[in-house]
Amino acid sequence: MHEHTGYGIEAFIRKQFQIEEKDIRSYSPLALAYIGDGIYELIIRTIVVSKGNRQVKKLHREASCLVKAQAQSAMMEVLRPLLTEDEADIYRRGRNAKSYSVSKHASVNDYRRATGFEALMGYLYLTGDMDRLMELVKEAVAGYTPDEYAGTEARNRYGKAEKKQIGMQEDKRSI
């Protein structure tokens, strides 16, 4: 089990609000996915905003390419070989959790794999393993090719210049 490193936003929040540390094993996979969804989106939004000031609509479009269920599902295919045994177990628990909500824009399989992805993000965040969290996010984003998984609607929505601006070129390492 990972130890808290004492740095990062989670430790700061716990300190500021005098929240006791809880045993990570007491969290359900869906609770891990809930916090993982938020922390992953915060990371992606931070990356997107740091590229420069733009209209919020454009910021949202760029971020949503990377946070939607289909993207997270595809990213798990990149990450699975890199996971430790504990991380793979957290992913499986999240993927197999019985969720009562469904995505309007994703298949059941993509939604479940995305839930596993988010559970893994939440686990790493709550254990304070920010280095590993960032390492996996970098690998996931670098290995993800949106056009490969996007339908015709998504491919046709962006012009060549806009695709380049939002990072849909072949080399994803720029993100």
Can you characterise this structure?
The structure is a single chain. By secondary structure, this protein is mainly alpha-helical. It is 65% helix and 0% strand. It has 10 helices and no strands. Helix 2 (29-50) packs across helix 5 (85-96). The longest helix has 22 residues, at 29-50. Mean pLDDT is 84; it is low at 1-5, 148-166 and 168-175.
Key descriptive features of the protein:
single chain, mainly alpha, 10 helices, 65% helix, 0% strand, disordered N terminus, disordered C terminus
What can be said about this structure in brief?
The chain is mainly alpha-helical. It contains ten helices and no strands. The longest helix has 22 residues, at 29-50.
Helix-strand pattern, N to C? HHHHHHHHHH
Mean pLDDT: 84
Strand % is under 5%
Main sheet: strands, sense, barrel: none
Radius of gyration: 16 Å
Distance between the termini: 30 Å
Shape: globular
Could you tell me the number of beta strands? 0
Tell me roughly what share of residues is in helical segments: 55-70%
Unreliable segments of 5+ consecutive residues = 1-5, 148-166, 168-175
Helix-and-strand structural type: mainly alpha
Number of DSSP helices? Answer: 10
